[in-house]
Amino acid sequence: MDYKKEKMDELLNAQINAQNVNTVDKEFKDLMKSLFAHIKEISADMRKAFGKTVNEFKLQMENKIAQVREQLKGGKDAGEYIDLTLSKPILKYGAMHPLNRIYKRFESYYINNGFNVVSGPEIELDKYNCEMLNMPAHHPARGMQDTFYLEFPNKILRSHTSAMQIRYMLKHKPPVKIISPGIVYRVDDLDPQHTPMFFQLEGLVVGENITFSDLKGTIMNCVQNVFGKDIKARFVPCYYPYTEPSAGIDITCPVCGGKKCRTCKHSGWIRVGGCGMVHPNVFRNVGYPENIQGFAFGYGMSKFPQIEYKLPELRILHDNNIKVFKQLH
Ligand SMILES: [Zn+2]
């Protein structure tokens, strides 16, 4: 009669709750198996009494377990029970695009320095992308940016975000202080250093008494803020139809710190963009007064993550392979 009596008492006295209900239920069922198996082994005269004990035990346990399960399902005390045995869904984290991570550093620098962020359409009117930026039809400078022309008349895929400068100036009087980030398109064969679309960040500052020194200061401060105080910028004479004078922006190679390496083609410098004082024709085209000056600058943003993460090919940035981006963290 005492067969497994201790175990039965232990289970009957157990405090069953959300944490242990499954374990207790399993122990109970295992015990029942061995109790039923034992019934066959005991003598006939003892069998009835033993069967009665086992049945009572079975009913009580089933009741206790059912009660707890009922509460877990949403009974009045359900709030007190948390089923810790439930497996939780595995959360799959994404990763911020390397381009976005670097862009955010630039953006916060410019926002902190009073610039507004403006964005515009990627399908752009020819007059905003070229004509009003001092590149009328048949101007030889149009060949500098091999543009994708669309079948719609006068519409193109923008070859630079400078088009936003025109759109903004047509709607706002000076002073102007904006940056304009976005994807731009140029006819280019796909190779390790080129893609037919890339990410550009442009800026425009317009007002009275704006000088080339202001332009230099803005660029220098920005690159040092984003890449560290050791980085220097230099300005190399250059030609753009919409600025005069114009300059290419070089920064000391962040990979070798200017000591010359493969990334900077052993020059110590990397060309990251262009800039200049806004051409008077551009101001005339948007109806600004003659006493106004301004400067514009643009960075080829895709260069920066390529340098920072030593990417062998530029197109990795546009393949959107999340496994690769996670490794870049
Ligand atoms: Zn280098």
Give an account of the 3D structure.
- The chain is of the alpha+beta class.
- The chain has two domains: 76 residues; 230 residues, Bira Bifunctional Protein, Domain 2 (BirA Bifunctional Protein, domain 2).
- Helix content is 38%, strand content 20%.
- It has eleven helices and ten strands.
- It has a seven-stranded mixed β-sheet, with helices on both faces. Strands 2-4-3 form a three-stranded antiparallel β-sheet.
- Helix 2 packs antiparallel against helix 3 and helix 4 packs across helix 7.
- The longest helix is centred in the first third of the chain and has 31 residues.
- The chain is elongated, with a radius of gyration of 36 Å.
- The two termini are 67 Å apart.
- Bound molecules: zinc ion.
- The site of zinc ion has 7 residues, from loops.
| Annotated CATH topology of the largest domain | BirA Bifunctional Protein, domain 2
**SSE topology string:** HHHHEEHEEHEEHEEEHEHHH
| CATH C-level category of the largest domain | Alpha Beta
Share of β-strand residues: 15-25%
Secondary-structure map:
Elements: H1 5-13, H2 21-39, H3 44-74, H4 98-112, E1 116-117, E2 123-125, H5 126-129, E3 148-149, E4 155-157, H6 163-171, E5 176-185, E6 197-207, H7 212-227, E7 233-240, E8 243-252, E9 269-278, H8 280-285, E10 293-300, H9 303-308, H10 316-319, H11 322-327
Parallel strand pairs: 1-5
Antiparallel strand pairs: 2-4, 3-4, 5-6, 6-10, 7-8, 8-9, 9-10
Bound molecules: zinc ion.
Residues 253, 255-256, 260-261, 263-264 line the site of zinc ion (ZN).
